[in-house]
Specification:
The complex is a heterodimer of chains A (about 140) and B (about 180). Chain A is of the alpha+beta class. Helices cover about 40% and strands about 15% of the residues of chain A. Chain A is built from four helices and three strands, in the order αβαββαα. Chain B has six helices and four strands; from the N terminus they run E-H-E-H-E-E-H-H-H-H. Classes of the chains: A alpha+beta (about 140), B alpha+beta (about 180). Chain A: One of its GO terms (molecular function) is 7S RNA binding.
Chain lengths: ~140, ~180
């Protein structure tokens, strides 16, 4: 990963940017990754030890560990004869401290819901169907 | 491998995280694609077929046949949201894909719970004694009330795992889970 980790606030701004870019482009992807932030915080055992004790990873660490969140878009290169433009890959990342996880994910959910506008909305016809189903289901449970 | 229900995916992913908390990672991908020409053709074919069959059905018994949906533009780009839990050491890969906007809130909430697993926070307890998909199978098909409920769960996460689970479960599952905890 090139570059520094962003603060959570800055990360959300950039994430909104990524989604916006994707929207204006009309196609493409946004990748989001989360994993335990182990660099410098957790000492991984040596390879020999890992083989010796395959369950080394399941021991609960004493202290909560931060979580690393990454986001990126896909780069694309210009292709002759199509509308495709060359797009640079943008990579952003942030580290979420354990005590901020809940707050972070609440904002994260909002950001993603706002950003993923291309997904299918619930259409009215389906809603009607569901209501019918629900009625049927509730009638069944009452019986 | 792909899962068909998000609850199932969540359960398996959290098991994977339990087994390999420091190497497993979760990648989610939101992708928008222009349909290929063959996809466009398929859509057009489907639309025409559908219009034909529903009109025939309407003639038979007009009350029970649902109205044809607002036609999807055959050229419209299709978007999907894919969740992937992957552990590079064991090579285990769990996937779930959706194209429904209504599910995003719920899925991110489950990512948040998995994030707590990753952070090794102590209060995370997941009750796997509840049979897989007990309430979960019903939730994807849930009605309009589903979305706001998930929102409440995501915001009220500070109260721990229990209220959120109950919120996503909904209906009959609610009582059962509350009784267990």
């Amino acid at each position: 990963m090139a570059g520094e980790h962003l603060t959570n606030d800055e990360f959300f701004k950039q994430l909104a940017n990524l989604f916006e870019l994707n929207r204006t482009k009309g196609h493409g992807s946004v990748y989001l990754t989360q994993k335990r932030f182990t660099y410098r915080n957790v000492q991984l055992p040596s390879a020999d030890k890992m083989i010796e004790d395959p369950l080394w990873d399941t021991y609960h660490p004493e202290q909560p560990v931060p979580v690393l969140i990454r986001a990126s878009n896909n780069d694309s290169s210009k292709r002759a004869g199509t509308e495709r433009k060359s797009v640079e890959k943008i990579k952003i990342s942030t580290v979420v401290q354990p005590d901020q996880i809940e707050e972070f994910y609440a904002r994260y959910a909002e950001a993603c819901k706002a950003g993923m506008s291309g997904l299918k909305k619930r259409d009215r016809k389906k809603g009607k169907k569901d209501k019918k189903k629900k009625k049927g289901a509730s009638a069944e449970t009452k019986v | 491998m792909y899962f068909t229900s998000s609850t199932e995916w969540y359960e398996q992913a959290s098991l994977l995280l339990k087994a390999r908390p420091s190497t497993a990672r979760i990648t989610s991908k939101y992708t928008v694609l222009k349909p290929t020409s063959s996809k466009i053709r398929k859509r057009q074919k489907y639309a025409s077929k559908r219009a034909h069959s529903t009109s025939a059905g309407d003639a038979g018994n007009p009350t029970t046949t649902p109205q044809p949906p607002a036609e999807q533009d055959a050229q419209a780009p299709s978007a999907t949201f894919t969740l992937k839990a992957y552990d590079p050491v064991s090579g285990c890969c769990l996937k779930y894909e959706t194209n429904k906007a209504a599910e995003v809130g719920r899925l991110i909430a489950s990512l948040g719970r998995l994030g707590k697993h990753m952070a090794a926070m102590k209060e995370v307890t997941t009750d796997f004694s509840v049979p897989a998909g007990n309430a979960g199978i019903e939730t994807p098909a849930g009605g309009d009330s589903d979305v706001p409920m998930v929102d409440v769960g995501a915001k009220g996460e500070s109260r721990g795992d229990v209220p959120q689970k109950a919120a996503t479960g909904g209906g009959g599952g609610k009582k059962k889970k509350k009784g267990k905890k």
